[in-house]
Structures are given as structure tokens and as C-alpha cells.
Amino acid sequence: MATFPSVTPTYSGFSKKSAPAVRTVRFADGFEQRIFFGLASNQNPVVYNLNFDLSKKDGDVVSAFLRSRANDQESFTFTPPDEGFTKTGTYSQSGTTVTITITNHGIAIGDVLTIDYTSGSATDGSFTVATSTDANTITVIAAASATNSGNVSVTRAGAKLFGCESWQKNIPYNERTNISATFRQVFEP
Asked: Same domain for 114 and 149?
């Protein structure tokens, strides 16, 4: 699996579009039922429209990378702007339910987190968010039952798999390149 080149672009703009895979049935009395369509982990594919401002050298590297992905039809790993983070807070575990409190966490149900319990005796690892009850509280399910509390560090990796639907390379002036690209999230085993 290819990884997007390690260049440091200046983003002159980008947009993120989510399109959850939901089927809606509307009944004559106005009642509406919504259900997810497809696998639960693939419910919300994201499309990014990105504008990279790069040096000519880095622009050539990115352009060659995108051409290679078009030729081999392979997806690639990319971390979109502002997607990954590490935050700290507190936790309490009762049974297998671990309640984590982090001010304005920005975490959603289904997000996969790497959790480092920095105090207490809970076991570190990778966990899927079970509930997000408010802007400050989430829960995950531990493998073993216990009673613990302490401090925690939570990391959400921003890297995802993408395919590039299209791109355009502009050279606004000498030794600079602007690449406009559309990256569509893909789901592969």
C-alpha cells in the first residue's frame, strides 16, 4: 500500500464532504425510517477537495505519485488536514465500561482510538468508541472487567485510505506549483 509523499504543503483551501450510506423509507402518514446501507465501518465515506501549494520539486513528486496511483489503480494512505490528534483527560472503569472525560473531545461513535492509561491499572490498547454521550464524555469497552480510574491520553490517527478521482497541476510562477485534487475515501480489507 502506497503512502502519500512526505511533503509539507501549504493548504490554500480544502473542503470535506461526508455522504453517509443511508436508506430512507417514507410512509404515507409522514413516518420516516432510516437505516444504514452496507457494512457498519463503511457508513460515512468522505471526499476531500484539496489545494496544495508546493515548491516545484515537491509538486513534481506529488504529481508523479498521483500518476502512479492512476496507472496501478491502487489506493494510498493519506492524513487529511486537521484529522489526527492526541488529547488528555481522565477515565473511570466499572466492569468492562470505561468512561473517558476530555473537554470538547471531537470524537464520534465508531472512531478507533489508541488509548494510553497514564495512571491507574487499566490496559492500554486500541478501542472503538461505543458511545459519545456529550461533547466531553465517551465510553469504550475493555476486554476485562475491573474497577479503575486515573488519567488517560487518547490518540485518533487521521490516516485513511483514499483514491484520487482527479487532479490538476498549475504553475502560478517560477519554482512554485499548485495541485488541486479530489481524494475519495475507500474501504479495503
From this structure: yes
Q: What are the grid coordinates assigned to 141, written together? A: 469497552
Range 38-68 burial, b when 16+ CB lie within 10 A, else e: eeeeebebeebebbbbbeeebbebbbebbee
Same domain, 33 and 16: yes
How far apart CA 185 and CA 173 sit, in angstroms, is: 32
Q: Which helix (H) or strand (E) holds 148?
A: strand 137-156
Q: Whole-prediction pTM value?
A: 0.69
Q: Residue 146's domain spans which residues?
A: 85-156
Q: What is the pLDDT of residues 64-86, one digit of tens each?
A: 999 999 999 999 999 888 788 89
The reply to whether 109 and 147 lie within a common domain is: yes
